[in-house]
Structures are given as C-alpha cells and as structure tokens.
Prior knowledge:
By secondary structure, the protein is of the alpha+beta class. The protein has two domains: 3-131, no CATH class; 242-382, Histidine kinase-like ATPase, C-terminal domain (Heat Shock Protein 90, 2-Layer Sandwich), CATH 3.30.565.10. The protein is built from seven helices and eleven strands. The strands form three sheets. The protein has a five-stranded mixed beta sheet with strand order 6-8-9-11-10. The model has no long low-confidence stretch (mean pLDDT 82).
Amino acid sequence: xxxxxxxxxxxxxxxxxxxxxxxxxxxxxxxxxxxxxxxxxxxxxxxxxxxxxxxxxxxxxxxxxxxxxxxxxxxxxxxxxxxxxxxxxxxxxxxxxxxxxxxxxxxxxxxxxxxxxxxxxxxxxxxxxxxxxxxxxxxxxxxxxxxxxxxxxxxxxxxxxxxxxxxxxxxxxxxxxxxxxxxxxxxxxxxxxxxxxxxxxxxxxxxxxxxxxxxxxxxxxxxxxxxxxxxxxxxxxxxxxxxxxxxxxxxxxxxxxxxxxxxxxxxxxxxxxxxxxxxxxxxxxxxxxxxxxxxxxxxxxxxxxxxxxxxxxxxxxxxxxxxxxxxxxxxxxxxxxxxxxxxxxxxxxxxxxxxxxxxxxxxxxxxxxxxxxxxxxxxxxxxxx
Length: 385
C-alpha cells in the first residue's frame, strides 16, 4: 500500500472511529445513568419497605407499655427517630445524626419519613443504608466489556470500509503505474538511439558540438534520459539491486554540475558550487544520481530567467538553493507525494521529490524543504557520519 493510500485510510479510520466511539460512548453513558438510577430506585423501594416495618415495631413498643423499651436495630440499615423540632431522640447510628444533615450520596442511601401519630414522641424517622456498589460495579464492568467488544468490531468493520474507500484511489494509482511501465518500455528504444547517435556525432564531428541546434538536441536528449531513468527507478525500485560504494561527493557534484550546464544555460541560470568540506557518501551511485539530479532539475526548472542555483556542501549536510518561484506553505505538506506538483506550468509527472524522498528514507538521511513564494527554495539533506 502506497503512502498516500495509507494516509487516506488512516484519516478515514480516525474520523470513522472517533465519530462512532463518541456516539457509542454517549449511548453507553445514557444506558449507565438509566441503569444506575434503576438500581438506586429499587434499593429506595426496599428501604421504604423497611421504614414501614420499623414503624410497625415502634408502634408495637408504644402500645406495649413495657417497663424497658428496646429500640429495634437491624444489620441491614441504620435508623433514628426525631421529635417535632427534628431533635434526635434515639437511633442505631454510632453517633448522633442530625435529621437535615443526612442526604443521599454515592455511598449512602437515605430515606426520610414522617411518623403519624407520634409513637414514642417521635415525629420523624430516618433510615440510612450503604448503596449497593456491587451491582453498580457489575454494571460498569458490563459496559466496559460491551464498549471493548464494540470497539474491536467497529475497528474491523472500519478497516474493511476504509479499504473500500481507498479502492478507487488504488485503481487510479495502478492505472498510473501501468502507464509509467508502458511509457518506460516505449521510451527505451528511441532514447537509446538518440543518445548513441549524439555520442557518435560528438566523436566524429566535434565541430558540430558548439552549434545551437546540437546543444538543443543535447538538452532534449538529457531531459528524456533523466525522465526515462526516473520512470525506470519507480518501476524497479523494490527489486533494485544497490551496490554501495564510497562516493567522493566533491567530484560527484562537479560531474553533475557539468551534466546540467547545457540545461542551465538554455534557461540562462547560473549554477554555483561551494565546497565547505570534503565528504564521502556510502551510497549506490545511481541512487546519488537520482537524488542530486532531481533536486538540480527542479531548481533549474522552477527558477527565473538569469536565476542562480547554489550548491553548498558541508561536512554534515548538503544544501541546494535557488531564487526561483518558490512553493506555497500549503503545498509543502504534500509536495513530496507521488504525482503531486505545486506548479503545473513547467510540466512533469510529479515524481521527482517522491524519488528523492525514497532515497533519503532508504539511507536514513533527513530532508528539509524551506520555501517562500517568489523568493526561492532551499532544500537541505542532512546525515550522520
């Protein structure tokens, strides 16, 4: 799966899972609140029944006229009775509990009721019982497992929906890749013929080398050759056998500047090479060519007439700068993706920076692009040596 497909799939899954889990969480919260309230109401009904039972015991004590009265205690709940002014008379609490200060919370369930008639001088009754946390805990566990199961189910479902979502993109990319393969195949023979004949002309007719017609033909052939090499690289990248060598970047950059001289002169662009340090790259030479050529080609292509391309080689980085048309900040986010171009006026397939990014990723380099519209672009390739 290509990076653009993965990015689209991830975006779809994030939006899908976020919206689904938010809705499911709201539904679960409503269900939890409703179920918890039902548990509390059932326990309140049970406490109300216990209050009636306690009242009958108090009435029996009131009517018994026994010399000693024993307040009816219970292991299930605590209770107390109060007079008309809500002053504490007696109860089974460990300490005196004020009638108005006792309220239901997350731990204690409280039930209050009037006593009519006033048995044993009491006018109010208060019962308190620990809230049944076991039932609430079981409810929470049920909701947790339900959400976990739903999360796994919706993730799997979202993945398959996402695959269907990116299927049209995959088809378009496959069609584009097939077009590249067919184009590469068709370009092979004519490009080889052109390059062979140019070499023969340079060898047997050196006087023609300085004519404008020959230079234009040379520029066109080099452009075609570079496009062909890029298309071949995309086609064979995953099966490409790399031969890692120690490459002197000073000499290599001088060779690439000479290679692009005719192309640069055609646009009246000057290439400056500044060597700060001597650097050896351990890299496949063809990868280095793809990397540098694409960056130099873009720097020339998107430059102004009489513009300047500056190549600066440091010990820890390579910087290629131009003072061309630049890139918008909004375009920098996706400019490295395949078939993406920030400017369509100069043509091209939109594969140059994608190839650069592949080479950079393979050798664990660091690619940084800084650009301002109409001010130019600076591309830095950093490495650890």
